Amino acid sequence: MLSKVDSQEIMKGSNLSAPAVFILLGFSDYPQLEKVLLLVISIIYALTLMGNTAIIFVSYLSPKLHTPMYFFLSNLSFLDLCFTTSVVPQMLWNLKGPRKTITYTGCVIQFYIALGLGSTECILLTVMAYDRFNAICRPLHYGVIMNPKLLKQLAAVAWISGFVESTIQTILIFHLSLCSHHRVDDFICEEPALIKIASVDTAFLENELSIFTVLFVVIPLGLIVVSYGCIVRSVLKMNSAEGRRRAFGTCGSHMIVVTLFFGTIMSVYIQPKSRYTQNHSKFLTLFYTVVTPSLNPLIYTLRNKEVKWAIKKLLTTDPNVNVFRTKFKTYSGNS
Question: Fewer CB in a 10 Å sphere around the end CB: N or C, the chain?
Answer without folding.
Answer: C
